[in-house]
Each structure stands twice: as structure tokens, then as C-alpha cells.
Amino acid sequence: MDIDGALGRDPPERGSTDGDRLPRWVAPLPAALEDVAYRFVWVIVAINLLGTAFGFWYYRFQFARVPVEMWMFVPDSPGATLLIALALASWAVGRGSDTLAALAFFGNIKLGLWTPYVLVVFYPEFLANSGPALYAFLFVSHLGMVVQAFVLHRMTDFPVRAVAVATAWYTLDLLMDYFVPVIGEVTHTSLPYSDAQPWFTSTVLQVAAAGAVVLTVVPVFLALATRVETLRTRA
């Protein structure tokens, strides 16, 4: 077995001519980079599983404060990296799942952008609490989540049912995180300021929630736009 066979598979077809390829605004990565991701898919799976383990460790204090029944809504970023690890692994063994791919796409876009957003908005205390090295790691690694999300169009065309499942889950997660927790308090990622603290003309919670709302809508649009463009190029 050659090294590609051990670490991944030949990438799915992207289209043989420029006219067959998706527009850059829905598929921004170079084809060569997408190919590398699939040829070394098990490396990416392993990196995401390591990130998932670190993320669960990072949330350990929040788990201790939240009722067990609400734990599924707590680890947002590690949940997203776990989903993309599962989506890529399922493709690698020949059992790809459109639903897993859609969930992974939503999670990695949403949390990959939301975390840098709050790191910048609330940077004084985030930087003071975590230190420059961890702050930089969190910022860069979450942007990496966004990058890897854009390889998923090679393994799925985002059927409407899969997008509906992902939209439903991340809408529910949004409600539990910021608005209407069923048990206990809201479950959003801990912030370095109290939720009620004034922040310009709003509060810390409202500023964080506003970013989460916008970044729940963005992957819905991108997934459906990718589907439309995929069907258009096939036609």
C-alpha cells in the first residue's frame, strides 16, 4: 500500500474543466489544496480528534456548572471538529453521509468564525486570561476550521434534507446557548465578562448572541448556494 492509500483516498471529482467547477465564492480553496485534504484525510481526521479532545478539556469547568441533561449543547467547537472528523472518516471508508457533511459544514463555519469574533470583541480579558500563546492558538485554529469546511462540497451536494437537519440542530443549539434553555441557564461558551455587563449600547450576552445568530444564517446560505451552483453546473 502506498502512502496515499494509507492516509487517504483519491479525491472526489471536482470537474475536469473550468466550466464544471463551482464559483470561487462557494468553493474558495484551490483544487490542489482540496486534493491534498482528501489524499491525507486520515491525518485531518486525527488532527480534528485531537482538537476535539482538547476542546472537551477546555470546557471542563463549564461542564461542572451545567446540568448533565444540557451537556450536548455545551462543547460547541469540539462538537464541530468531531462532526467533520466523522464526516471525513465515513467518506474515507466508503460510507459517506450527506447529513454528517452538512452538520460538519455548519458547525465549522459557524464556530470557526464565532470564536475569532468574540476573541476580538472581548480581547482585553480573553488575552489576559489565556495569555498570548493560547489566544493566538484559539484564533488561528478556529479559522482553520472554516478552511477545512470548504473541502466538503467534494463529498456532498448538500441535499435539502441534510441542510434541514443541520439547520434544525444549530437553531436548537442557538436557542439553548442564548435564549431559552430548557434546564438551568444558557449554555453558550464561557465569556470573560458577565453576561449582563454593559458593552457599548448593548450587553456582553447580546453582542455574543448577535454574532451567533448571523453565523447560523451564513452556513445555511452557503450550503444552499453550493447546491444551486452544483445543480447548475451539472445542467
From TrEMBL:
- Amino acid composition bias (Basic and acidic residues), ranges on this chain: 10-21
Annotated region (Disordered), positions in chain: 1-21
Highest taxon listed in the record's lineage: Archaea
Q: Which Pfam families match?
A: DUF1405
Q: Which residues cross the membrane?
A: 40-59, 71-93, 100-122, 134-152, 164-184, 204-225
Give the UniProt keywords, A-Z. Answer: Membrane, Transmembrane, Transmembrane helix
What protein name does the entry list? Uncharacterized membrane protein YpjA
Cross-referenced InterPro entries? DUF1405
